[in-house]
Amino acid sequence: MTVSTFAAACRETGAVNRGMREDRGNRVSTVLGRRLGGELYKLRTAAGRTQQQAALEITATPTKVVKMESGWVPMRDPDLRVLCEFYGVTDPQVVSGLLSLARLDRERRKAKGWWQQVPRVGSLGEYIAMEEIATHIRTWQLALVPGLLQTADYVRALGVTSDWTHPDEIEVLVETRLKRQSRLWDDSPLEFHVVLWEAALRQQIGSPEVMRSQLNHLVEMARLPNVHVQVLPFRAGANHGAGGAFNIVSFAEPGALDVGYAEGIVATVWAEGAETNEAYSQSFNRVSRLSLAPHDSVNLIDAISKGM
């Protein structure tokens, strides 16, 4: 749900920001909760129902519906089923997707993840939490090898250029990055589809030896059955991904209630609306179609490594 739609939703009950302030002490607005709430808001408005009417259906207050639609409270399956029926949602796949997202959100709220103990993890903590429960991640990168495929020395070289300047802090960054990579070979390995611009392979991070080792590692990781690496070569020309790097996190099949993520210089952006996520997905598909096939991509990475 966008800021404008949330404000509109709150105005229905005269609860602009009130619910958020009331819950800050013991509730949090989660990415998954907002994604689910945005879907419910869209279904409710499409059905022509008000928050007061929805509240009566689940024997709750309109303020609670505001909180549900803005992701501040977890959603119970019975409430979700009742609301879907009230909004005329009959497609079992749609209902099942919403129920699955609600379950993941409840589990996410209760989880005490390892990343919560990492100092200075900041806004990345929410992304790591999503990464831990994702089934599929697609990423488009312009200048860097993605974190899940980085070597320790490559991370250290990046750390020197960040505000993590103390050696001990940089080692925390390294350990955090390497621990995240276990998602690629755990009991339920993450499906990881990477599209890299050729610049990410030629931009030297650290010494030539560090970069060569990183490229060789990328070739090795591309051999995993759940890791798909493509390279968009310079000769492909202008492309739809020139606006910036991003990740698309999926919790079922790609396209089913995806969440987009883009990291900026001073802030991170979560794309929580269906339309915005569809735009990310279309952009990724376009750059993927322009890119080399995985086999040819690996050959290019290998050639760049040998020439470095």
Question: What's this entry about, in short?
Answer:
With 308 residues, this protein is of the alpha/beta class. The chain has 14 helices and six strands. The protein has helices at residues 3-13, 18-23, 31-47, 51-57, 62-69, 77-86, 92-110, 124-133, 152-160, 167-180, 198-202, 208-221, 274-290, 294-306; strands at 136-141, 191-197, 227-232, 246-250, 259-263, 268-271.
Task: Describe the model.
- The chain is α/β, with parallel strands linked by helices.
- The chain folds into two domains: 3-110, 434 Repressor (Amino-terminal Domain) (Orthogonal Bundle); 117-306, Endonuclease, Chain A, CATH 3.30.870.
- Helix content is 52%, strand content 11%.
- It is built from 14 helices and six strands.
- A six-stranded mixed β-sheet has the order 3-2-1-4-5-6, with helices on both faces.
- The longest helix is centred in the first third of the chain and has 19 residues, at 92-110.
- The radius of gyration is 21 Å and the shape is elongated.
- The model is unreliable at 1-26 (pLDDT under 50).
CATH fold-level name of the largest domain: Endonuclease, Chain A
pLDDT below 50 for ≥5 consecutive residues: which ranges? 1-26
Find the count of extended strands (DSSP E, 2+ residues).
6
Spatial order of the strands forming the largest sheet: 3-2-1-4-5-6
Overall morphology = elongated
Number of DSSP helical runs: 14
Order of helices and strands: HHHHHHHHEHHEHHEEEEHH
Radius of gyration: 21 Å
What's the number of structural domains?
2
Helix content: 40-55%
What does the largest sheet look like? 6 strands, mixed
Distance between the termini: 47 Å
Strand content: 5-15%
For the record, what CATH class of the largest domain applies?
Alpha Beta
Nearest-integer average pLDDT: 84
CATH architecture of the largest domain: 2-Layer Sandwich
